[in-house]
């Protein structure tokens, strides 16, 4: 949250130059406040775990959010009960006439398929198009980020030599961005995917800017210049044991997976993993929700998208 100090105080210019959020007295006096409406399009098969992880991040801020859950009607979920979906989730037809301050599109374990071969691709495209007029800011995660870049900017994904799984060191490319306020110059983030996006193609697009990347894992945070779309290629919402559960699942399937990088102490899967990414992950969600949703969304939600 911002600090409110007199406009002419000498500290104002200094703090703003250090990327500290300072709210002017004029803005503070004229700011209207209401709960934020956030929609989560949950494409993960582990729906209950994913909705819990993301809501944990959203709840750990001083902002009040009204969260709704969205599912695709063109895909039959197999890992969650129909009762859970019917009780807590809505379909696109039920929300298409509504406006939201924020939309989160999760990842999905379909990155090895061509986009057009995903059974709910057409529905997802419709939702992404709808978000340009009915959502103030959209946050895409992992495969959801790849899908968003492909649909909105024509940048395709490519197959990696092997699954990228682990906790990797990243560096902030644009430290002046409010999205990475509070980040260390070097920080750790989780990745778990089979595909990637060419960094040069993103850098060449004038409508996009790279915020953070990794020499090993590649792109981590990309945003549109107009701050309407955010693309995060890792999994900042992951719990401490999520990579372990994925690794153990793949072992049982006989896939013979590599041990997730920088995750288990001494790369020993029998030991308890250390969480080294939670602080930046929370900051990422908090900064997005505060600076790019709460601070800029219209007070009259019907004006979202204008």
From TrEMBL:
Which keywords does UniProt give here? Acyltransferase, Amino-acid biosynthesis, Cytoplasm, Methionine biosynthesis, Transferase
Residues annotated as site: Important for acyl-CoA specificity: 111
Signal peptide from the UniProt entry: none
Give the catalytic activity. Answer: L-homoserine + acetyl-CoA = O-acetyl-L-homoserine + CoA
EC number(s) recorded for this UniProt protein? 2.3.1.31
Q: Which GO terms describe its biological process?
A: L-methionine biosynthetic process from homoserine via O-succinyl-L-homoserine and cystathionine
Matching InterPro entries: Class_I_gatase-like (IPR029062), HST_MetA (IPR005697), MetA_family (IPR033752)
Q: Which molecular function terms from Gene Ontology are attached?
A: homoserine O-acetyltransferase activity; homoserine O-succinyltransferase activity
The metabolic or biological pathway listed in the UniProt record of this protein is: Amino-acid biosynthesis; L-methionine biosynthesis via de novo pathway; O-acetyl-L-homoserine from L-homoserine: step 1/1
The UniProt annotation places substrate binding at: 163, 192, 249
Q: Which SUPFAM superfamilies match?
A: Class I glutamine amidotransferase-like
Show which residues form the site (Important for substrate specificity). 192
Cite the PANTHER family for this sequence: HOMOSERINE O-SUCCINYLTRANSFERASE
Task performed by this protein:
Transfers an acetyl group from acetyl-CoA to L-homoserine, forming acetyl-L-homoserine.
UniProt similarity note? Belongs to the MetA family.
What is the protein's given name? Homoserine O-acetyltransferase
Protein source organism: Collinsella tanakaei YIT 12063
